[in-house]
Amino acid sequence: MRSLTLHLKILITILVVLGISVTAYQIFVLGIPVTEDATDDLWNIDAKVEFVANPKDPVKIQMFVPPLSRDFVSLNESFISNNYGVSVNRTDGNRKVTWSARRATGKQTLYYRLVLTKRYSGEKAKIKGPTFRDSIAVDGPEKIAAEALLAPIRQHSADVETFIGEAIKRTNNLNDDNVKLLLAGDPSTPNKAKIVELLLSIAHVPIEKVHTIRLVADQPQTPELWLRSFNGNDWLYFNPETGEQGLPADRLLWWTGDENLITVDGGKKAMVTFSLNNSEMNAIRLAKLTDENTDANFLEYSLYGLPLQTQQTFMIMVMIPIGVLVILILRNLIGLQTLGTFTPVLIALAFRETQLGFGIALFTVITALGLSLRSYLEHLKLQMLPRLSVVLTFVVVLIAAISLFSHKLGLERGLSVALFPMVILTMTIERLSITWEERGANHALKVAIGTLFAASLAHLIMSVPELVYFVFTFPAILLILVGFMLAMGRYRGYRLTELVRFKAFLKADK
User: Which residues pair with 113 in a beta bridge?
Assistant: First the structure.
């Protein structure tokens, strides 16, 4: 007996731990939202390219587009142009689109459109980057000024990160004579970034220029310059104006390097205008789209990987154990008397279509009429199988009649009575009749009311949208329910209704 108890405890522990572990992995590692109402941002970015084409020259326009290699994933990317060939190439970690045409005249307008979202989940590619670089050749006064700036930078820094931050801060000190000499009267951000690159190259610290777009809706903007350096594990981003480390979450990396955003051969007056707008999408739907557009497949082996019609079926099926758990608690802990365990659950499933109030009324009417017929058939002394066949046929005819009259009266809700499980109703009528004969009308009525109450409560709980979503999305929670059911299987204590029944004994003891 002790070995059996230990075996049961180990089994319950394994089921509960496994259920909690799988569910926690889905929530905290895969990032699957806990509620159905959770939404994620969806960004629509339009880059409008305008230029004037030379009438006699072939036209070739090249523009950088986001690499989308790590933090963001593209859901849709389109190149809108008229009579232009389009090709996309990847070079040095950048992506560049090329529009080309044999002839074009006058003002030309091209569009690049991108729909993207944050990368939802899945393995991220291993990052690679340079950790050493050669010095930029410099001599004369510039060399002396650079070395003069590097001395305090080295003194006030402890590692590569602080070295870069200190170099940026020193370069932005326009009162320093050495900085003035190196800037040569040009205090623009690109020129400051050039001086920072010079200083870091002398110390053999690699640095890259990155151009970003800020994800802010309805605000005109131009690409913003940032600096980044690879520390051996990850890229470190720095603001070239303040030296602040860390790229804000609302920045989208567009391209890296010193090249211009756009180059035009066979045209002039090229200009790129960015416009952004933001929308929200259901997080699970967005995760499925992300799955389809990346190598991630964390939803492929969940119930969301099934066809849509099958998903709807499983949304009902996974809630059946919840209904069974409700009946188990009502029977074993509270002591409610019902017609078995599964009959109330099946009636609760029928209530999904009829709705609760109308379903209870239909159940009561059909069961009452069926009991009357069953009582009449008892006087004919029929065997059980013919008797059940007659009751089943009567139930079908009764359901058809109720549906017909409901339709004529305009009560479309009454048509859903056909979804009631006919066999279950037939067996319910038979079992209630036997209970009536063996234990009396009061007990039969009590059992019928208990069955209706249990079915109603199970229906209400099984219909909670948040619970349906949670169990369907995290089906491992059912393992925890199985563990609880196993624990309930060894319960031998009093039920709540028995405490009321034995209350008289407590008074007698006093």
Answer: 46, 78
Summarised one tens digit per residue, pLDDT across range 438-480 is: 888 788 888 888 999 999 999 999 999 889 989 988 999 999 9
Q: Are 117 and 42 in contact (CB under 8 A)?
A: yes
Residue-wise pLDDT for 212-226, tens only, equals: 998 888 777 889 999
pLDDT tens profile 307-333:
767 788 888 889 999 999 999 988 888
Q: What is the pLDDT of residue 159?
A: 84
Q: Residue ranges of the alpha helices (H) in 214-341?
A: 283-293, 308-317, 320-329
366: closest CA among 412, 453, 319, 429? Answer: 429
Three-state SS sequence of 200-211 = HHHCCCCCEEEE
Distance CA 477, CA 471 (A): 7
Q: What is the band of 427 on the pLDDT scale with cuts at 50, 70, 90?
A: confident
Tokens describing residue 180: 């003035």
Q: Are 418 and 389 contacting, i.e. CB atoms less than 8 angstroms apart?
A: no
pTM score of the predicted model: 0.64
DSSP symbols for 356-405: HHHHHHHHHHHHHHHHHHHHHHHHTT--HHHHHHHHHHHHHHHHHHHHHH
Residues in the chain: 510
- What is the helix (H) or strand (E) element at residue 252, kind and residue range? strand 251-256
CA angle 42, 208, 118 (to 5 degrees): 15
Q: Is the dihedral of CA 51, 57, 58, 64 positive or negative?
A: negative
- Interatomic CA distance for residues 228 and 239, integer angstroms: 9
